[in-house]
């Protein structure tokens, strides 16, 4: 007999959870961490679990201690990598895990364990694909130095306003993911160190995955091995690399989707995957820098036998075509379809730019009659720079718009 709608044919299978602890030379902290964590999980965690200690290149007594703990506790497993790197340790552990949900936390237990089940529950219920702890949202309670507070808030503000992310804290050492979803992302994550967290989350949102946040209690470990300033610099390098990858279309990942999504209102509008605005702007800036240099190289020789207005017109025509075509191919990825309409709309923008840059040249000579060639170029380039943001928005929302009413 068929079961009635909404009634399961048997007991629901509980999701299994693997809590990974990446360690590097942590012989002092590891035993207390594992004993505290296993006691908490045994008493308070309602899902099947195991703890994985992943040693990544330790040179002290960490690995023998990890083996001893794995022998002492039935639900503790120990693995080892020859090279250092938190990202590398998590990739190895998450790829090999038999669990439905993989998580990780730092060995110092800076994050309160009370947030573990709320974070995992959003994944077990099917609500989200990635879940993270946050120290920066309302409800979080933290204790840390002013330097780390300023750097953390500045870095996450850059992600929020540059990439348009929906999460507030990229680097809290307290994260979880559905195993089947995170594995394809791991193949695309290049960083094996501290930028791993940010890269994973940016790739997740870029590919339309849902990231759930849980406010945490967090206390700074004064014995932390993290070199904050060096890590911040490495993170900025990673952001530039990832922005370029996104702008080139290389950050798209095929990830599993729920077979039966939850019902929605029939008139509901589902948002498209979050766009990476910074990635597009980086490509636009590179193209703009090249065409600005090209303009200067054209204007100076043309100015030898043409008036300022005519030289400006000739140089702008040539560079405008190059700029539009380069942005069409690389920044906004509009390689298919007709080019006539695109270049016609770009032509109208060109006329506006020409009018303003010509006014800059004529205004310069009105104020400084003896102005030389280099001063002329400086005036035009400065004017063009002021127009850059407006031009970017116009290209994105008008010239290269995929659909217009």
Describe the protein's architecture and organization.
The structure is a single chain. The chain is an alpha/beta fold. The chain folds into two domains: about 15-245, Spore Coat Polysaccharide Biosynthesis Protein SpsA, Chain A (Alpha-Beta Complex), CATH 3.90.550; about 275-400, no CATH class. The protein has helices spanning about 30-45, 60-70, 85-95, 115-125, 145-165, 180-185, 195-205, 230-245, 275-300, 310-330, 340-365, 375-385, 390-400; strands spanning about 15-25, 50-55, 75-80, 100-105, 130-135, 140-145, 175-180, 210-215, 215-220. The strands form two sheets. A seven-stranded mixed β-sheet has the order 3-2-1-4-7-5-8, sandwiched between helices. Strand 2 (about 50-55), helix 2 (about 60-70) and strand 3 (about 75-80) form a beta-alpha-beta unit. Helix 8 (about 230-245) crosses helix 9 (about 275-300), helix 9 runs antiparallel to helix 12 (about 375-385) and helix 10 runs antiparallel to helix 11. It is elongated and about 85 Å long. The model is unreliable at about 1-10 and about 270-275 (pLDDT under 50).
């Amino acid at each position: 007999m068929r079961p009635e709608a909404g009634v399961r044919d048997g007991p629901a299978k509980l999701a299994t959870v693997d809590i990974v602890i990446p360690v590097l030379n942590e012989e002092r902290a590891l035993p207390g961490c594992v004993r505290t964590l296993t006691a908490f999980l045994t008493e308070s965690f309602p899902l099947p679990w195991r703890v994985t200690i992943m040693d990544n290149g330790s040179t002290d007594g960490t690995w023998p201690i990890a083996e001893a703990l794995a022998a002492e506790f039935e639900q503790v497993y120990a693995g080892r990598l020859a090279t250092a790197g938190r990202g590398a340790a998590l990739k190895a552990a998450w790829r090999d895990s038999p669990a439905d949900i993989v998580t990780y936390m730092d060995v110092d237990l800076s994050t309160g364990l009370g947030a573990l089940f709320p974070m995992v529950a959003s994944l077990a219920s099917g609500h989200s694909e990635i879940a993270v702890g946050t120290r920066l949202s309302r409800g979080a309670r933290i204790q840390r130095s002013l330097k780390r507070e300023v750097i953390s808030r500045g870095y996450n503000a850059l992600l929020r306003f540059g990439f348009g992310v929906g999460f507030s804290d990229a680097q809290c050492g307290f994260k979880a993911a559905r195993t089947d979803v995170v594995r394809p992302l791991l193949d695309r994550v290049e960083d094996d160190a501290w930028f791993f967290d940010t890269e994973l989350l940016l790739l997740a949102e870029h590919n339309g995955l849902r990231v759930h946040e849980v406010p945490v209690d967090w206390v700074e470990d004064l014995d932390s091995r993290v070199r904050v300033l060096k890590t911040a610099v490495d993170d900025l390098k990673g952001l530039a690399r990832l922005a370029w990858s996104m702008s080139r279309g290389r950050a798209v990942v095929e990830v599993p989707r729920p077979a039966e999504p939850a019902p929605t209102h029939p008139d509901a509008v589902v948002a498209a995957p979050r766009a990476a605005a910074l990635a597009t702007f980086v490509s636009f800036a590179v193209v703009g820098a090249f065409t600005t240099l090209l303009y200067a190289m054209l204007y100076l020789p043309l100015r030898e036998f043409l008036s300022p207005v005519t030289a400006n017109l000739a140089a702008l025509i040539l560079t405008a075509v190059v700029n539009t075509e380069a942005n069409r191919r690389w920044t906004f990825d509009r390689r298919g379809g007709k080019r006539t309409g695109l270049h016609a709309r770009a032509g109208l923008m060109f006329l506006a730019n020409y009018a303003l840059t010509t006014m800059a040249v004529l205004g310069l000579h009105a104020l400084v009659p003896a102005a030389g060639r280099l001063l002329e170029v400086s005036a035009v380039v400065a004017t063009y720079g002021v127009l850059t943001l407006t031009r970017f928005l116009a290209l994105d929302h008008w010239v290269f718009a995929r659909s217009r009413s």
